[in-house]
Specification:
Structural class: mainly alpha
Oligomer: single chain
CATH architecture: Up-down Bundle
Largest sheet: 2 strands, antiparallel
Number of helices: 4
Radius of gyration: 25 Å
CATH topology: Butyryl-CoA Dehydrogenase, subunit A, domain 3
Helix content: over 70%
Strand order of the largest sheet: 1-2
C-alpha cells in the first residue's frame, strides 16, 4: 500500500517537473520570437530614418528669391511607440536606447533652434545649417548603431541590409568629421 502511495506521489512530482520544464522552454521560445519580431520592426523603422538623416546632413540650404537660405530637406521624425509588441522581450539597455531615441531628436532640434535664435546670421544662416547637419549626422550615427545592435543581438543577416546602409553610415561619419574639423580650425 505504501509503495503505491510513493509511486503516485513520484508520478505527480515527475508530471509537475515535466510540465514546468515544458512551460519554461515554451516561454523562452515565444519570448525569443517576440524579440526577433520587434527587432525586425525596429530595423524597418530605423533604416529609412537613417537615410533621411543623410539628406539633412548634406542640406546646406537653398536661397529664395530674396537671397534667404531655406532647408531643402525636412528633418525626419521617428515613431518607435509600437503597441502590439512585447517590449520586455528586448534586453533593457537596448529597449532604453530605442525608446529614448525620440528624445535625442527633440534635444537636437532644440539645440538647432537655439542656434537659429541666438547665433545665426542672415541671409545664409550658415551657423544653423552647420548645426543642423552636425546634429543629424550624430543622430544618424546613433540610429545606425541601434540597427547594428539589433542585427547582432538577433542574428539578422547583415548582408541583407537596406539599400545603401553602409553608404549612409560612411557619409554621416564623413560629414561629422568635416564639421568637427571646421569647428576646430575656427576655434584656433
Amino acid at each position: 500500500m505504501e509503495e503505491k502511495i510513493i509511486i503516485g506521489i513520484l508520478g505527480v512530482i515527475i508530471g509537475f517537473l515535466l510540465n514546468f520544464v515544458k512551460e519554461l522552454f515554451t516561454s523562452r521560445s515565444v519570448r525569443k520570437k517576440e524579440a526577433e519580431y520587434l527587432a525586425i520592426r525596429m530595423i524597418c523603422i530605423f533604416e529609412p530614418f537613417l537615410h533621411k538623416c543623410v539628406s539633412v546632413a548634406y542640406d546646406d540650404g537653398l536661397p529664395d528669391k530674396d537671397g534667404y537660405s531655406h532647408a531643402q530637406t525636412s528633418t525626419p521624425d521617428i515613431d518607435v511607440e509600437i503597441k502590439d509588441v512585447n517590449w520586455k522581450s528586448l534586453p533593457s539597455e537596448l529597449m532604453y536606447e530605442i525608446l529614448y531615441f525620440p528624445s535625442l531628436i527633440k534635444n537636437a532640434n532644440r539645440y538647432i533652434s537655439d542656434v537659429a535664435e541666438n547665433n545665426s546670421t542672415p541671409p545664409d544662416f550658415d551657423e544653423v545649417f552647420e548645426e543642423r547637419q552636425y546634429q543629424y549626422a550624430l543622430i544618424g550615427i546613433k540610429a545606425a548603431a541601434i540597427i547594428e545592435k539589433l542585427k547582432s543581438e538577433y542574428d539578422i543577416d547583415r548582408s541583407n541590409t537596406g539599400s545603401g546602409h553602409g553608404y549612409a553610415i560612411e557619409h554621416l561619419i564623413k560629414r561629422k568629421s568635416i564639421i568637427d574639423s571646421i569647428r576646430r580650425s575656427r576655434d584656433k
